[in-house]
Amino acid sequence: MDEKLPQPSPEEQPLEKGLFTRRMFMMNVGIALNAIVGIAIATPVVVYLLGPVLRRKEYRQWIAIGDLTEFHPGETKLVVFVNPYRDSWDGVTDNVPAYVRCTAPGKLVVFAINCAHLGCPVRWFSESQLFMCPCHGGVYYADGSRASGPPERGLFTYETKIENGKLMIKAGQTPTLSNRASAVPCPGAGVKKENSLVQIS
Fold this sequence. Notes:
Mean pLDDT: 77
CATH topology of the largest domain: Rieske Iron-sulfur Protein
Number of strands: 12
Largest sheet: 4 strands, antiparallel
Strand content: 25-35%
Radius of gyration: 31 Å
CATH architecture of the largest domain: 3-layer Sandwich
Distance between the termini: 100 Å
């Protein structure tokens, strides 16, 4: 037997229409919220992928960190420079420290302050002529090569040049193995230890 449902009464029709409208409204709200969450998740991924293309012009540029007359042979000096890659809200966090080691007149090496192990700031001790990391006990010689501790290599160095009597470094990015901000081999490269003697190949 085919029984047909009775048609809704005129009083019930507006109620049914109202339920349909609320359901559609809630569905649209859910779609909008999902879209917002999707955009929020996708934005950092897209920025990361397009980072090298959208890199600002001041990223990795040459900046002066002092006059040559400020650095004396045999000395290691802590300097602070302003990171060229900064935003107005960075405040004092855009001040970047580095160590400048003068081995001879006009011969300078600029070390990143970060330990090559996990990036903690190292400290220079002039009494022992060593760089030491307070976090995990990494120790480096005055030339930046590894002395002991967990680091597997020496301190990272910045690219340097001398221009108009000023020491310039290529700043904007902390030197690491991945970006190779140093134009010279890492300190201690080519050092082989045999029978407690250090031989440079």
